[in-house]
Amino acid sequence: MRFLLAALVAVLLCALVPLVPGPQAAAQGESPTVLDVTKITPSVVGASSPGEVVITGRLTNTSDHQINNVEARVQRGNATTTEPAVQRALRDDPATVTEPAFTSVADRLAPGQQIPVELRIPLTGPNSLQLGQPGVYPLLINVNGAPSGGGRARIAQAQFLLPVLATPGGEQARPERPTETSMLVPIVDFPRLEREAIGGMRAVLVDDQLSASLAPGGRLYDLVQAVTDRAGPGSPVGNALCFAVDPDLLITARAMKDGYLVRQPNGSLVEGIGAGAAGLWLSKLREATNGRCVMALPYADADIVALGRAGLPDLVKGALDGASLLRDPNILGVEPRGLLWPVEGALADPAIADLPRTALLEPRALNLPAGSLSPVRVRGQNMAAVPIDPLLTSALDPLHDTELKVTTLSPPQNGQLSAQNALGALAFRATQGQVPGATSVLAPPRRWNLRGDDLRALLDGMQQLNEAGLIRLAPVPEPDPATLPEADLDYPVDAGSAEIPQPVLDQLAAQNFKVGDLYVSSQEERSSPVQRGQVTTPLRNGLLRGAASAWRGKPDAARQWVDRATVAINDVLGQVRVEYFEGQLMRTDSADSPIPVTVVNDLPITVHVVFRIPPVPGVEIQQDFGGTLSIPANGRRQFLLQTNAQRAGKFTMDVTVTTEAGTQFGTTKRLQIESNNYGSLIPILTGIAAALLVLMSTMRIIKRALARRRRTEAAASADAAEPVEPTDAATNGAPQDSTPETAHIATTDGDRNRN
Fold it and tell me: Which of 158, 214, 248, 585 could form a disulfide with 281, with the two C-beta atoms 3.0–4.6 Å apart?
């Protein structure tokens, strides 16, 4: 009985616990493979298109188990007829209405193995997409397989929109009026520059990842090269593009070109390897932007709304000064357009600074009628607000509706699908989703992560839609605000919650005061080509990197960059310092001996300083020279600090030089001083000694006088007590001394000293 019970328990346990565990990815609810689509042909189906869609890509087994009998097929959903339906097709699994047969992809896929994939699906006929009329169709790539130890299941998928302008053999329908369309090309990266080259100090980057992005095959290189290849100046697509350039990226690339250092995790510095790549990329960017629309983003793509709300209008103004860098012939040499594209396409208060006259804003940041994309005038301001098309934005940026919408490279993968979805959304906007009288502005994610081929496919598709009459490629609009109806700004709540937090902005503001104080406390040398702004502007730019859009919702990262900027500011301020000789002891031999102090200025500009010396007990120090003291650029000056020692001995004196407003240069130096002069103590001690001598002499005189008086009184008493004897005849009447011999009192000096 006991044996039967044990056997029954063992059977139950075997039934509950699988003998072979399933794949790790599957256990976590993730797909065990990743499908990367690299090309879709044709991206837009027209009357002259081939009779099939060809999809190529790569399939990678990311699990630790082999997958057998890998197959795939392409399924189609119903054509989208409303904007919400298009949005759902971009985000959710579409409901499909066709189920063609699976095509074998591989017999087996080992862990970590990657294989090429090519799927062909006819447009019409049996085992096809069964397209019967034009429209924008959601397509689903369904990959099936059997992981070792598991049953057959979907192991990967990818979905995208396919615009169909005409079915095979049919005629294409044209809208009554094409939709005007333009697109931004963001040239933005993450902040990398820890310190610019200032005053002989070399530029330092926090890492060297940018060198790979700027090199051929890198993200930023491919964005520029693809535009050059497919949208030359004067072409319809070229006229519809506008480069949105972060000036900080240009400054960083220029610093790399001139040679730079890279900070290592242990704090050391090594030579950077991207000088050649940076120089090549800058030349490519100058070629691509020549003769076309270029707009300057705020420096470091700083969050000017957060800076304005924190009461830092000077930093807002500084962030908008980056447009001058685009004009620099050594960088781009272009005249930027008066356009503003704020972070998240939202403004809280346009009065924070002298902003450009046209702002590209998301509709949710404006009080507009539902579905409206028409430009408006910001109420009470001479500013036109041009709405960004939210449908196209969602198609280009799969992270747009998440917390990562401005902080992460996007799309994180499958950039080809993002480009394809943008074409599908654009085709829908030009047909069933048309908004009369509006321009559809495509605003990609700020850190656009497209391969060169993906962007070429997007530009080719836009050219095809333009030739088909669905869209009309046009420049980014800059309407006259006076001709527009007014509307209020509506700053989104979630945009405000993602701003850089106030404590970090307070820290940033405190350091910005130092930078401004250095500027007003300096002047240019006539013999030097260096202007003071060339020293202070890089420091201010470093602070703006702490308010970059990349750190929205990431306060620790923002604080870290403000700390880096603080180190750079202190390094520059440290170039002005009190010269210090280790172990030197200064000796003074008089009460008012001057102490020589040398101030060194290694900056290429003249600075004005004052001495700050705390009181030293027993010593009076003159540190007021009647105002500020000028230290020449790359020079030094010696000053004599007048001191008046009121005592002898050793003492220390802390010497600091600051601006007149109190910003400290360098570090405080401690001078060791030894005084051999008693100063005012000498006459005091002399007077005391003289008084004591007089007092002692007086006391001695009084004492001697008292002693004589006592002796005189004693002698008188003795004479009165002696009896009178008869006169002896032998004396012949002469008086005889009757005082005993022992009563004689000596008056020698030696005896006087004993009294």
Answer: 214
